[in-house]
Amino acid sequence: MEKCNLRSLDIWNQSLTYDEYSFLTSSGDLKRLYLNEYIICHPNGTLVTFDQLFKNIPKLIAFFMVFAENYSSMFESDTFKKLTDILPHLKELDLYGLTERI
Fold first, then answer.
1. Which of 7, 23, 25, 56 is deepest in the core (most CB within 10 A)?
2. Cα torsion at 42, 86, 27, 43 (round to 10°)?
3. Percentage, residues of the chain above pLDDT 70
4. Which residues contact 57 (CB under 8 A, 6 or more apart)?
5. How far apart are CA 97 and CA 85, in angstroms?
6. Helices (H) and strands (E) in the chain, counts
7. Residue-level pLDDT at 35
C-alpha cells in the first residue's frame, strides 16, 4: 500500500511515529481529524510539533484535539506564526486541555 485515501481519521490513545502518521494522512484528502491523547514522535523520540500535524492535509476543514499531559513540547516559539497559513481554511477548530503552561 502506497498511501491511505482517508477522508476522516480518529486517533485515540495511540502512540505513532511521524512516518506512520504521515502515511495515514498521505492522500492529502483528509477533511476531518480527531486526535485524543495521542503521541506522535520523530525517530529520535521528540514530539512532532503542532504545526507539523497539518503538513499533508491541505483540505482539512475540521480539527479536534484533546491534549495529553506532555503536550507543551509540541509548541515552539514560531508555531502559531506557522499556523496562520493553515488555520484560515478550517471551518471548525476544537482544542481541549490546552492550558497556559505553554
1. 25
2. 0
3. 91
4. 25, 28, 30, 33
5. 24
6. 2, 6
7. 93
